[in-house]
Amino acid sequence: MTTFSRGENLCSFSTTHKINTKKIIVDKFYKDNFESFEDYVIKDEKIDFYLNGEKLISVMSIKEYQDAHIVGFLLSEAVISTLDDIKSLKISEDGLSVYVEADISNIAYENLFKQKTLTSGCCVGVTGNAEKTFDCAFISTQYSLKSSEILSYMSEFNKSSKLFDDTGCVHKARIVLKDGTFFEAEDIGRHNAIDKVIGLVTLQRKNLKESILYVTGRLSNEMVVKCVMHKIPIVVSKAAVTFEGIKAANEHGVTLIGFAREHRMNVYTHSGRVKID
After folding, report:
1. What digits encode the pLDDT tens for the residues 165-215?
2. What is the spatial distance between Cα 21 and Cα 3, in angstroms, rounded to a whole number?
3. The pLDDT of residue 125
4. 227 is catalytic
5. Where in the cell is it found (predicted)?
6. Domains of the chain by range and CATH?
């Protein structure tokens, strides 16, 4: 069992491509004929999260970065406010169970299991803790980037990974810090991928207040919630945005960018953070 204790320099353990995929035989129909070939599919598994000795939630995910996953999840749901709230973190040898001991209030723990609002993807919810924090939050930072920088980072982000190339079955999230350092995570669920990458940054004790988040998939309300909860001022996707996503971003100070391509992008809210070269 992999273990961490409070005060240690936490770092995430990544599994291999082999562990995240399974090779199978597929019968492909093409031009009136079947032909058999070997192919990779993603190996999704049920991961159990435990908090202070009680089962918290089960998520369908891949084994990679589950330490970061639970850290990002607990921060996103406002169960913990900083990494220092975690006293210990343990991962079972098979990678399917993650155990956290943390300093949390009884109210925060109770709210985790009630007042849940189902989101538009992956059956993930936003709990009462997150909603309460989100409702009164506004990102006022003047952090900005040149349009060429945003699109250049997008071009790099769009380059396929080995895991996506082999399976076509993962979402990806990347956080780029002010100095150009980036962290990246993949998962079968876009919410999982975002929580993982946020966890990775947090485990390295980096500042998210001057960063930009790149995601795959649509930019809906829950994507904005995650940005606000972690004070990330800019979020970008090559995909579409939703009305509720625009509304939330406008009200809470997030620069929302969709349909980002090689030479263009749509900036839906707080465009002052995008500087023309």
Report:
1. 888 889 999 999 999 999 999 999 999 999 999 999 999 999 999 999 999
2. 25
3. 47
4. no
5. Cytoplasm
6. 2-13+44-132 (3.10.20.10), 145-275 (3.40.140.10)
**263 annotated binding-site participant:** yes
* Element of type H or E holding 197: helix 190-203
Is 190 annotated to bind a ligand? Reply is no
Q: Is 110 annotated as a binding residue?
A: no
- Cβ contacts of residue 264 below 8 Å, gap of 6+? none
Residue tagged active-site, from 11, 122, 136, 227: 122
Asked if 254 and 228 count as a contact pair (C-beta separation under 8 A), the reply is yes
pLDDT at residue 192, as a whole number? 93
pLDDT for residue 5 = 57
Residue 161 is predicted with a pLDDT of: 79
* pLDDT for res 107: 74
